Amino acid sequence: MNSRESAPPVVSDMPVCLNLAMVSMIWGGTWVAGRFLAGGLSPILAASLRFLLASVALLGFLRLARIPFARPNAGQWLQLALLGFFGIFFYNLCFFYGLQYINASRASLIVALNPAVIGLASWLLFKERLSRLKVLGILICICGAGVVIISRNPQLLAATPGAWIGDLLIFGCVLSWGVYSLFSRSLNQSIGPLQTVTFSILLGTLMLWALAAVRGEVSGAAVADLGITQWLSLIYLGVLGSALAYIGYYDGIRKIGATRSGVFIALNPLTAVLAGAVLLGEQLTMSMCVGGVLILAGIWLCNKPLAPGGKKRIL
């Protein structure tokens, strides 16, 4: 862990912040893409196809760019397998099985806890300094995301049979993403974000396909029955929502740390609401707009540069 005397200049942080905002907007669109895909495939097969397309896109990019494959050592392979297991395999299991017990709005409310979990874990495990301003920004982001999500579906907090199981599974998504965000530090520095994402997604994809095969969910007929809208949704999920977005997210972690990068996840529900309004004709309300303002304010506070001469510790 390194300590720097002052925060990086605002100019150097701005491209990173814009990149992370774009990543979160892409992820927000995955909720809409997932709704177009829903019902056509089993959840595990859908996840397997999504990350198969992501793997193909990543390998194709490496080939076209003539970027040689890194040669991870044994310890790095173990780290990559850990990232693939938690960030791809276990995350998708918790996500898809959790949605069998609770609706997507309730799930997204729990997922909105990601910035807080990442920030707390960074403080506990890596001794990252959490200033009062950064903590306030994280809390405001969570409040803003909650306002957006609850405004979209006021009934999401209503208790349903087995809801606690779904809540527990979706919280497993939060913990999985925390592992995927925090335990990539050394790999991002040694082999780079592109190689880290590529290898972790390849390993996670193999795990997903193995589970789909064991459960008998690999179905060529189901894939052949997919329509053009569903294929476009899969391509969006795999190429943009996985390959491109994961690289952008890891690049942000490498440059500004996990806590400051993780807070941009609060933009996901806001983007999902906006995409739903544009593509699905869903209604926007004033409370959703208020929640969006809170999210943006929280992100600004969490990423606000220190005054000249201030000390800042980064991952």
The Cα radius of gyration reads: 19 Å
Q: SSE order, as H and E?
A: EHHHHHHHHHHHHHHE
Main beta-sheet strand count, sense and barrel state: 2 strands, antiparallel
Low-confidence spans: pLDDT under 50, at least 5 residues?
A: 1-11, 307-315
* Shape estimate: globular
Average pLDDT, to the nearest integer?
Answer: 81
Helix count, DSSP H or I runs of 4 or more residues? 14
**Helix share, percent:** over 70%
- Strand order, sheet with most strands: 1-2
Quantity of strands, as a count = 2
Taking the alpha carbons of the first and last residues, their distance comes to 6 Å
Strand content: under 5%
What structural class results from the helix and strand content? Answer: mainly alpha
Count of domains? 1
